Amino acid sequence: MNLVKRHVSLGASKVANGVLRNYLRNKESSYYKEGNIFEELAFKYSFPQWMIKLFYEQYGIHLCEKILFGLNQRPDITVRVNSTKGDYEDVFNRLEENGYQIEEGYVCPEAIRIVRGKSIEENPLFKEGVITVQDESAMLVAPAMEIEENMTILDLCSAPGGKTTHAGELLNNTGEVLAFDIYEHKLNLIGENIKRLGLTNIGLSLLDATNYEESLKEKGHRVLIDVPCSGLGIIRKKPEIKYNKNMKELQEIVKIQREIMTNAARYVKEKGVLLYSTCTLNKGENEDNIKWFLKQHPEFKVEPLFFGKVDNIIYHEEGYVTVLPNTYMDGFFIAKIRRTK
To answer: What residues are annotated to the active site?
Structure first.
């Protein structure tokens, strides 16, 4: 009660008090129908039944419950070491000297987990651009493209910019990253991060990725499309998604994703790579889109990815990867697609 009063309001604390007292008076009551797995899981994990049914139908009961459990975990803060400005071991030691309790990343070699410590954005290492905040799932994306120095990278849906700047770092400030977004204010925020990180090989431009841009035809050695999605993999960070999404929206966004995929395919150089990623676990936006794309574009093929043997990463026989949410990582999907001719 005191927490609600302190962080919300006196009125909210009275409502919470009423709810808790009602629960205590009816502790022995059943809140779901015995034998109804969807009602039981909805009560146990506090998820809407339509979403539970979606995960159940797509993943089966075991992985469905693993997903629900993972999406209820408190997310870690993870930072990525900027390889153009600092050495991992040196940065790790400096963070410890600054009083942070930290651990090595769960799967990414450039990741450091902040277990305990003051605001990381107030740390000199952050202000100097030596580190930047990014979830480990998102950290997998840029390295999956197998970036080499002096390449041209296109990032068609670049906000909030973590993958854009990671690509710039992997290029070691050579080549160019052409980053696009539909919203100018988001590009301005990316620009601030680019400046802080000391990257000089990234250009920012307005672009609606659903519209074809002729000047980008066969421009990219690597083309990244981290497409707009339902966000079902990041509910542990944005719990409101449970309540402001519905099946109709999930179906409608697929059209936008496929428009972006169609345009992006035309921007890839021969032998180049198209990298498709989302932060959702809905197979309609993930596996189904890749299967559709390959039917439309037989000149592309999926290449297998491997990030290490951990129990929350599913390596599909088709080559793409699903990351299940846990304490360390968001739910994610990544597919590396090579243009063969």
So the answer is: 279
